[in-house]
Amino acid sequence: MTDSDHNIDGPSAGNPEGSPAEAAPEPRRPTVLQVLPGLVTGGVERGTVDMADALVRAGWRAMVASSGGPMVRELERVGGEHVTLPLASKNPIRMRKNAKALEELIATEGVDIVHARSRAPAWSAWWATRRTGTPFVTSFHAPYSLGGPLVGPLKRLYNSVMTKGDRVIAISEFISRHILDNYPVDPEKLRVIPRGADVAIFDPERVSAERMIQLSEAWRLEDGVPVVMLPGRLTRWKGQGVLIEAMAHLRDLPVLCVLVGSDQGRVRYREELEALTERLNLKSVVRFAGECRDMAAGYMLADVVVSASIEPEGFGRVSVEAQAMGKPVVGSNHGGVAETVLPGQTGWLVPAEDPAALAAALRAALTLDNGQREQWAARAIAHVRDNYTKDLMCDRTLAVYAELLG
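Above: the chain's sequence. Below: its structure in token form.
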């Protein structure tokens, strides 16, 4: 073989100067931009960070645009990138300016998909994606109010942006039915992807005795006294008042009721609940625990967990987290909660705003013997891990993105 033959067939082929060939460029990572009002706290925000984590792990680029907040650090810790824009504003002029800013962001950053998770940012994102031709995904998180006869048409119009995605994600079958019943949307665009619990956190095997003892002392729990727990911010629609009234039907049982959650400035409602507790002579039974930063340990202290919402929830994160921890759940028989609880197997479903029915279900839960509790716990944990995990939610959402990118 001649030297010239070697040069033609070797690494420097096509390079007449004989310099080393350049390495092939790495394939470009698809970029997903999620938009929402802010990254403060809540299920939507948690899902946004979880999805960013999944995108990065899958080798994609994860961007989030919002007005910011304490969860930006969590986003950046998992490898996501944050862009600060005043997307919480519902001012039409500001929303149009946000649309222009998003349009420029899509162009300069090479965004492949925009995923909107709230209505005001969704309008800005929709305008921007229509101008850039970028695939658009929306997540419909709640049965948004349809308004009365006077404002109803405007309210429906405002809500309707959440159905304008090339793919529309409903977080439960309940939300999917709500969309189809109230908005002119192509059913082929709909994808039902329930939220999920992080079973790396909500795992009874991972909660130490020390964490439980610390929280038990903070909540002033009494050894050997069963605990009924309702987690959720103190707001009327979460049904704390219904649970307090139900506790009045259980005076013959030794039991403590723990309300976990901040009033978030709703001082008057908290005072109303305290007055109800005093009027029913339940001050020794009901604990207002405030915000809890270790809900996995909190659930472990409960004998039964309550979701007493008086209005249908889009999904109902509490019922899933509690089951992931092996706890029986009593939930209102509507909304997403009615889908996640298996009556007679992992919990009970009762009519909303019915203290007597709630008390009857609590009595049944509190009188389970140890063998029954173990069986219920095993079923609940398996139910969540088969159907409602964070990883399942993220994998299904990634599949939606892949659909749009072909």
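The first strand starts at residue 31 and ends at 35.
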